[in-house]
């Protein structure tokens, strides 16, 4: 996996010069939706997404089919344009989408490394221990986990926050399956709602921010609508939660040395990225990668001071297996010992998600180059109007992953104003809560609470979540005066 970041950077460097050199000579994209090439590309994308939907049943990672589909679609695009005597537009368009992906890839790589670093320093484990050890009732735990999820997800992303709070719900609920089911639904809705008003809360909001369509501070205009989106179903579901106290006996875990420092470094990196983007008009990825470099330097400090654990020849430290070379160089062949190594943290990134994102960006970009998104934009935003179109697109994200939905909207570029882009961000970010399979948080918690939090148990409360979804959209429209 170590070659993946290098490949992304290589593509970024090789593509930039060509894009700037050839953009002026590019022809207008053709409308090939009614051609054999258009139908073939659409069929390839549909088949790949069938495999994505069946990921759990087939045990096939979702990134694999979409990466293959991306390559095939762009071959079809190139053949279609060459048949019309255009040998350049397909290559120019492909480099453009690769550049978009490369910037987001590096941003996500840095953000996910910070989150994984906090996990390795047991920041989340310590928080979970503190919550479980409090003498709270189940209903109080229900509100505390939901509230903390809503607060943390804008910073630590909705997926990581949902997994953390889902672990708390499972630890507290033990054999109380009704509480676990409702508690997990509450966490999923809160995670998606909290991630909708911050560029760091979800990939879709990050995409909108990276495109410069919404400034960082403008996202906070979605705070109240997002809060309503969570509170409406949370209040309705809380009526089924008992006031009894949970059992105890959970193992206490403390934060490792440096945990607080990593948290502060992450917050400083976020602030630096925002300032770089707003004041200097540079891509925010520059700030994130600079912060990642500082984190690596701090990781070097930890590697010199982090304790080593050896027990009867077996290493118990998390990063212990990588010091064999050091010991061999010093003539020590008795065991393998290593202190902290930040590159081990980087290796724990969710590469499947990052590669899935690559496939989605290129698949949707290929369909856009064939003219599909221009037609879809006319159908939705031209005929239905932006308000209804954004609301329907948000509901569609419950069935189809919100990443391709948002990228499709960005590729359409329907000419919306700030309030409408905020509405689209809110709708796509929270619409996935309608079904358990509609968001990464829901899918992850179904695996974490297998057999207790299920598709059916979530579906029973979809009506309440839909009420919150509609209330949140209406609140935003009211605040924006439309």
TrEMBL record:
Superkingdom field: Bacteria
GO-annotated cellular components: membrane
Cellular compartments annotated: Membrane
Molecular function terms, GO-annotated: antiporter activity
Predominant location: membrane
Membrane topology classification: Multi-pass membrane protein
GO process terms (BP): sodium ion transport
Domain Citrate transporter-like: residue ranges: 49-429
Transmembrane segments: 34-54, 66-84, 96-115, 136-156, 260-280, 355-376, 388-409, 421-447, 459-479
Assigned keywords, A-Z: Antiport, Ion transport, Membrane, Signal, Sodium, Sodium transport, Transmembrane, Transmembrane helix, Transport
Signal peptide start-end: 1-21
Family membership: Belongs to the NhaD Na(+)/H(+) (TC 2.A.62) antiporter family.
Name of the featured protein: Sodium/proton antiporter (NhaD family)
């Amino acid at each position: 996996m170590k070659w993946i970041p290098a490949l992304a950077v290589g593509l970024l460097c090789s593509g930039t010069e060509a894009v700037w050199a050839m953009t002026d000579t590019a022809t207008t994209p053709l409308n090939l939706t009614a051609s054999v090439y258009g139908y073939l590309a659409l069929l390839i994308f549909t088949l790949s997404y069938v495999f994505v939907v069946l990921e759990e049943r087939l045990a096939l990672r979702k990134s694999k089919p979409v990466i293959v589909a991306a390559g095939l679609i762009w071959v079809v695009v190139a053949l279609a344009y060459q048949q019309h005597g255009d040998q350049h537009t397909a290559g120019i368009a492909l480099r453009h989408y690769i550049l978009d992906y490369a910037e987001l890839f590096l941003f996500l790589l840095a953000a996910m490394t910070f989150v994984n670093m906090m996990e390795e320093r047991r920041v989340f484990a310590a928080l979970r221990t503190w919550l479980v050890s409090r003498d709270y009732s189940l209903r109080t735990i229900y509100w505390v986990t939901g509230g903390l999820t809503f607060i943390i997800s804008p910073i630590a992303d909705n997926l990581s926050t949902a997994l953390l709070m889902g672990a708390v719900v499972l630890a507290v609920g033990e054999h109380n399956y009704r509480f676990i089911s409702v508690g997990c639904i509450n966490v999923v809705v809160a995670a998606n709602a909290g991630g909708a008003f911050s560029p760091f809360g979800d990939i879709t909001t990050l995409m909108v921010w990276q495109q410069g369509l919404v400034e960082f501070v403008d996202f906070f205009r979605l705070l109240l609508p997002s809060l309503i989106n969570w509170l409406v179903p949370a209040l309705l579901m809380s009526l089924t939660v008992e006031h009894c106290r949970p059992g105890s006996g959970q193992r206490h875990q403390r934060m490792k040395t440096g945990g607080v420092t990593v948290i502060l470094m992450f917050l400083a990196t976020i602030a630096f990225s925002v300032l770089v983007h707003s004041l200097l008009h540079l891509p925010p990825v520059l700030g994130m990668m600079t912060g990642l470099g500082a984190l690596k330097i701090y990781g070097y400090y930890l590697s010199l001071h982090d304790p080593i654990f050896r027990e009867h020849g077996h290493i118990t430290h998390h990063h212990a297996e990588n010091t064999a070379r050091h010991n061999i160089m010093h003539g020590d062949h008795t065991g393998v010992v290593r202190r902290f190594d930040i590159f081990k943290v980087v290796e724990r990134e969710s590469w499947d998600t990052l590669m899935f994102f690559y496939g989605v960006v290129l698949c949707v970009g290929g369909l856009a180059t064939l003219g599909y998104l221009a037609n879809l934009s006319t159908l939705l935003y031209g005929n239905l109007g932006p308000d209804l179109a954004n609301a329907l697109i948000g509901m569609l994200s419950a069935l189809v992953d919100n990443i391709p939905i948002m990228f499709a909207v960005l590729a359409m570029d329907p000419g919306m104003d700030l309030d409408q882009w905020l509405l689209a961000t809110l709708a796509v970010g929270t619409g996935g809560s309608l079904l358990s399979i509609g968001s990464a948080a829901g899918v992850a918690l179904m695996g974490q609470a297998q057999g207790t939090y299920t598709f059916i148990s979530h579906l029973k409360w979809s009506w309440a979540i839909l009420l919150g979804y509609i209330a949140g959209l209406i609140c935003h429209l009211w605040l924006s005066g439309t």
